[in-house]
Amino acid sequence: MVVGEVNSGEGDAEAQLPLVPKGSSSISMTCLCLTHSITQTHNHNHNLPHATTTFSSSLHNRNPLFQLFSVSNQFPLLSRALFQSIILRPRIRPFSTNLTASYSSSAFAQIMANFDADSVTYLTQRDAAEIDETLMGPLGFSVDQLMELDVLSVATSISEVYKPCEHSRVLTICGPGNNGGDGLVAARHLHHFGYKPFVCYPKRTPKPLYAGLVTQLEALSIPFLSVEELPSDLSNDFDVVIDAMFGFSFHGSPRPPFDDLIQRLVSLHNNNNQIGQKRSVIVSVDIPSGWHVEEGDVDGAKKFCGPHHFLGGRFVPPAIAEKYKLILPPYPGTSMCVRIGKPPQIDISALRENYISPEFLEEQVEVDPINQFHKWFDDALAAGLKEPNAMALSTVGKDGKPTAEAMLFGKCLFVFACYYCFALVRVEGPVQKVSDEESEQYFHSRPRGSQIGAIVSKQVYFCLTSNQIVMYGNDMSHEMVNNSTSPLDLDLEIWYFSTISSIAFFFPLFLLCCNSGS
Ligand SMILES: NC(=O)C1=CN([C@@H]2O[C@H](COP(=O)(O)OP(=O)(O)OC[C@H]3O[C@@H](n4cnc5c(N)ncnc54)[C@H](O)[C@@H]3O)[C@@H](O)[C@H]2O)[C@@H](O)CC1
Q: What is the whole-number distance in angstroms between the Cα of residue 431 and the centre of ligand 1?
């Protein structure tokens, strides 16, 4: 975020800026680059014996709502199990027409707001199995294809909620069936996403599909651990435990060794609750293992109420949707999955990030701070952070009054903003205007909406004399309404750091300051 008030240094405007030397057009400003990293809180205050996070479906027929939330990642996870949870029957009005439509974010938000949670119903265990047979029979899908689709959703959802920089150690516990196969595929994807997976696969299935999945993991040197090798308290060694033991074919009571493994997950969940803070999280694929497929946790808890619940299934053919009266939610953008259920309630007063981050040693620091900045900025770009060039620009007027504004910095300015997890860069120094030609070029390179925004925004106020504001404001309103193709114009001013007097890099537990000349 950039905050700032940039002044022209001329006429009336100059009078507001005491830091501008007489006759000069430079002022001083500070830019703060703030991270966009998504902070998730983990509410363990739910009744279930385990399952902090569930992907795809909770089969419980009382699970209250399928509030949709956009998940930016693809979500292949939609196994049939998905259907189970998604088993939305007809009355969910907003979703009753176009199953595959894309929505703008505001339209999507509106749909979510209209979502009628009480109308949600669910597939039965039998329906789920039948859908499976149909998919892999007349509809021509193969099990490994569905598995890959489903589990890419699992992996992308995990990476959405539990970032590898905080939750790198992932234990996947795999059962003997397809749900276990899901776990093997998840481990592979997560390895490629930067996690450090471990796999516990005590009852291996001697089928080529599973043998191939195991070979793929071995080729990646992903460790396989026996049940005996697992620590009794999983939370010490693993940040995430993926429960891929059983899906919709589970019945009866769990037999060894899964009875013991499920018990460890229950203990993990209970420990999390007792301590009252996040330790390691449990992610269940389809349903928490041990649950009755339709009745949920028969030992007490009656519905899944973990903080994160995702649903895949964007590949569902219309024939299936029609036959089972599935009303699939709108998937945002190109996502293969959606968040369902209420997003976690956030206690604002408890919003504190745990600044644990990758190792960052003195010898890794670039000698030239600008190079260090570019390195972090490149990392931020590579990590896919949204608008890493968003910054806070602060300035001080002649009256000594500081102001700050959010801005995006472009290439004609000194480009900063970089976060690698929690990294932050602060730059201080006098600024100068770039040439009119460059300013104009930059202005016309922006999308029309941004141009209009620049024209009518407060930020422009400081770039123009009051006469100009009125003139542009009136003209632009007319233009916007009557001619969306005519070129816009603005006497835009762009500033850059003529000298960097100070640049500071903030990293967890670490502060690097470089002052000019030192
Ligand atoms: N076929 C598909 O379309 C796909 C299914 N997927 C996943 O596969 C799951 C269903 O797969 P499966 O039908 O293989 O079933 P599961 O993976 O749910 O489990 C079946 C296996 O568990 C064993 N089992 C059942 N009850 C047990 C108990 N009480 N104690 C110990 N072992 C028990 C069975 O003997 C069998 O080996 C879904 O829930 C989903 O997660 C995904 O792989 C995507 C593709």
A: 64
Instruction: Tell me the pLDDT tens digit for each residue of 368-417.
Output: 877 887 888 888 888 777 777 777 777 777 778 777 766 666 543 343 33
Positions of E strands within 342-484: 390-396, 402-408, 424-433
Residue with CA nearest ligand 1 atom 41: 179
Nearest to 453 by CA among 467, 472, 435: 472
Question: What distance in angstroms lies between residue 325's CA and the mean position of ligand 1's atoms?
Answer: 24
Question: How close is the Cα of 335 to the center of ligand 1, in Å?
Answer: 26
Query: Domain ranges in the chain?
Result: 125-339, 376-438+493-504
Which atom belonging to ligand 1 lies closest to the Cα atom of 146?
Answer: 45
Mutation pick for ligand 1 pocket among 84, 142, 178, 298 (CB with most ligand atoms within 8 Å)? 178
Domain 125-339 belongs to what topology? Rossmann fold (3.40.50)
Q: Which of helix, strand or coil describes residue 189?
A: helix
Residue 282 near residue 52 (C-beta atoms within 8 A): yes
User: Where do runs of H (alpha helix) occur along 399-492?
Assistant: 436-445, 448-456, 458-461, 466-482
Tens-place pLDDT, residues 430-449 = 777 778 887 788 777 777 77
Distance, in Å, from the CA atom of 326 to the CA atom of 320, rounded to the nearest integer, reads: 8
- Tell me which residue has its CA closest to atom 30 in ligand 1: 254
Q: Which two three-digit tokens encode residue 499?
A: 């000298």
Predicted TM-score (pTM) of this structure: 0.58
Ligand 1 binding pocket, CB closer than 6 Å: 79-81, 132, 135, 143, 146-147, 150, 175-182, 246-255, 258, 285-286
| DSSP character string of 69-100 | EE-SS--TT--HHHHHHH-B-TT-GGGSS-TT
The first and second tokens of residue 140, run together, are: 């021509």
